[in-house]
């Protein structure tokens, strides 16, 4: 989920309007995924680096995420949608953390579609925390260091909540041909198909 600020600035709108438009586009995408039989969608909503943005912008985003999840809870339950949130959630506001816990619990048995939302996340963070968990297990004698392999690492990644998508959509900034994946799912990038559409941002998608 990116391009929110660019979309707003190109239209001389407040940055917040871009984020709100992004949420509306995401809702349309989820609706289409359910209609088309797509089983899993993961979205990179807020990266670890986004904490360095202006405080007022971060607070607005946290409020928007929380409000959006509250408003859509009924839809998730009615449409049999499972919600999974990954990332360093300890950094989130307490009320938002509680909402996530309750929403994941309420939807954990839903089977029609899974929406994975990455918040306060980066691929680097995920690999590091997985290695830290394995190191702790080795320290406690639960595993031997020589036992650590690709499979054990994948079991500790937060993306283990689902089969990781084999198709990843990326984009290039409006004024360049740069290919950006924003450090999302770094471990899995070797095994997926990367689709790039330079200059296309989330809010410009129409259905």
| Number of beta strands | 5
- Largest sheet composition: 3 strands, parallel
Counting DSSP H or I runs of 4 or more residues, the number of helices is 6
Kindly name the structural category: alpha/beta
Oligomer state of the chains in this structure: single chain
What's the order of the H and E elements?
HHEHEHEHHEE
Helix content: 40-55%
Unreliable stretches (pLDDT < 50, length at least 5) are 167-180, 198-203
Overall morphology: globular
Main β-sheet, spatial strand arrangement = 1-3-2
Radius of gyration: 18 Å
- Residue share in β-strands: 15-25%
C-alpha termini separation: 17 Å
The pLDDT mean sits at 82
Describe the structure.
The chain is of the alpha/beta class. 44% of the residues lie in helices and 17% in strands. The chain has 6 helices and 5 strands. The strands form 2 sheets. The chain has a 3-stranded parallel β-sheet, with helices on both faces. The protein has a two-stranded parallel ribbon with strand order 4-5. Strand 2, helix 4 (94-107) and strand 3 (113-121) form a beta-alpha-beta unit. Helix 1 packs across helix 2 (15-36) and helix 2 (15-36) packs parallel to helix 3 (55-78). The longest helix has 24 residues, at 55-78. The two termini are 17 Å apart.
Write the layout of secondary structure elements.
Blueprint lengths: L3 H7 L4 H22 L3 E8 L7 H24 L2 E6 L7 H14 L5 E9 L1 H17 L10 H7 L10 E6 L20 E6 L9
Parallel strand pairs: 1-3, 2-3, 4-5
């Amino acid at each position: 989920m990116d391009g929110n600020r660019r979309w707003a600035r190109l239209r001389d709108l407040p940055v917040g309007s871009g984020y709100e438009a992004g949420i509306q586009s995401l809702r349309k995408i989820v609706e289409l995924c359910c209609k088309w039989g797509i089983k899993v969608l993961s979205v990179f909503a807020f990266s670890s680096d986004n904490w360095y943005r202006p405080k007022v912008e971060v607070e607005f985003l946290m409020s928007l995420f929380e409000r959006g999840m509250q408003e859509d809870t009924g839809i998730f339950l009615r449409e049999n949608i499972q919600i999974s949130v990954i990332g360093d959630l300890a950094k989130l506001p307490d009320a938002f953390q509680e909402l996530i816990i309750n929403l994941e619990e309420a939807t954990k048995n839903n089977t029609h579609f899974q929406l994975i939302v990455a918040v306060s996340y980066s691929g680097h963070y995920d690999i590091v925390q997985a290695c830290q968990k394995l190191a702790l297990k080795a320290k406690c004698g639960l595993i031997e260091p020589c036992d650590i392999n690709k499979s054990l690492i994948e079991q500790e990644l937060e993306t283990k909540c689902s089969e990781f998508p084999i198709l990843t959509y990326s984009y290039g900034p409006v004024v360049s041909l740069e290919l950006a994946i924003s450090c999302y799912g770094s471990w899995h990038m070797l095994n997926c198909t990367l689709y790039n559409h330079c200059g296309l941002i989330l809010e410009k998608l129409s259905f």
